[in-house]
Amino acid sequence: MRRLSLRLRLVVAGAAAVTLTIATASFGLAALFSAHVERRAVAELSVQLDQVLAGIERDGDGKLILSTTPADPRFQRPYGGLYWQISAEGRLMRSRSLWDVEIPLPPDDLKDGAEHIHALPGPANTALLVVERSVTLPARLGAASMRAAVAMDRAELTQARSDFLRDLAPWSAGLAFVLVMAGWGQIAVGLRPLSDIRARIAALRAGRARRLGEELPREPLPLAAEVDALLDARETELARARTRAGDLAHGLKTPLQALLGEAGRLRAAGRPEAAAIEEIASAMRAHVERELARTRVAMKGPQARADVAQVVAGLIRVIRRTETGAARDWVTEIAPGLVLAAEPEDLAEALGALVENAARHARTRVLVRAKPSAEGTRISVIDDGPGIPPDRIATLIERGTRADLLGPGTGLGLAIAHDIAEALGGQLTLHPADPGLEARLTLPAAP
């Protein structure tokens, strides 16, 4: 049951409640119908009893007889379902339908004209509904006391109840179906704000919104407020962490810059250890810059947008001012309107490492290509350099790994680009080119 959705739980519970309610109401209606039918039967039996008593006369011998029998033919047919019985002056008179059976009336003490209703056994193991009355005959008939009873087979009442339930069943089922569907619709409408909350959370993840907001029904509003408060607290903590990381990084960069200055003076003085000091200090500064880049990406704003063409154009302008970049032929193939969900500085940081690496290893030409793909936006930086063996490509993005151990650099450029790509929800992959190497940066497009 824990794995069932909230909607399914409510639908199942509602359907069970509706089914139980309709079933209870149906049996309650059947009980009320049975009581009504029995009251009607008692009223009809009382009328039949009046007819029986109205036919009491004395014959020529002075015996009480029933001169006029009730018109219902069931009184004449053996075990016909309607019966009358009279006990007076020590004699028992009964209808032909009773045949040789006597209705076992209990020894009641009835007042004159009083009626009792009994449930008694009858012919052929049937159950009877009996109306009994004690009557004192008029003076012309001798003022004798007598007990008269009229009975009917209860099977007719049971059959009437069964017929009623059978007729009621399809209507009850139809009503249950309508109520279950109405409940499902009510649940769908009631749970719609949850879908709205899910859409708003998706918008938060995609950067299209900053908070869930207050435009929600009263019930989920406290949840949305708590989520927004959690987001506020998270942003505050991230801002503090970014500040602390920035302070730490800048605190390290200043002594490192001073150390590089001292190494420069040692190199000017002809000291051989200057090169080692400069290399170590440069590596440490690269690590600091990498951590600064990762911290900045972690604080990407929800409305971050970076135009690929503008960022690439700016990088090429800068790289062309360097000695290496000026010696290369730069070609761009960028589809118009490509916008990424990233800060322009972060995209420039990642692409800058790829562009610098391509400029350093290219012979004459570097191609920067960008186009949409199934995963987002694919940006490729392809050089026509010597390339590297395929078995070494996977190790290039590891921290501190370099393809050219004799050239300048710390080997952190590709690792920084890889970290930024992952932080932005994308990936960096390297592929052999003919000739050279292709660095492929795949990032999500802006919503």
Automatic annotation (TrEMBL):
Enzyme Commission identifier(s): 2.7.13.3
Annotated catalysed reactions: ATP + protein L-histidine = ADP + protein N-phospho-L-histidine
Pfam families in alphabetical order: HATPase_c
This protein's UniProt keywords: Kinase, Membrane, Phosphoprotein, Transferase, Transmembrane, Transmembrane helix
Domain (Histidine kinase): residue spans on this chain: 247-447
Sequence intervals crossing the membrane: 168-191
Biological processes, Gene Ontology terms: phosphorelay signal transduction system
Chief location category: membrane
Superkingdom of this protein's organism: Bacteria
Location relative to the cell: Membrane
Gene3D superfamilies cross-referenced by the UniProt entry: Histidine kinase-like ATPase, C-terminal domain
Record flagged with keyword GTP-binding: no
Enzyme class at the top of the EC tree: transferase
GO cellular component labels: plasma membrane
Protein name stated in the entry: histidine kinase
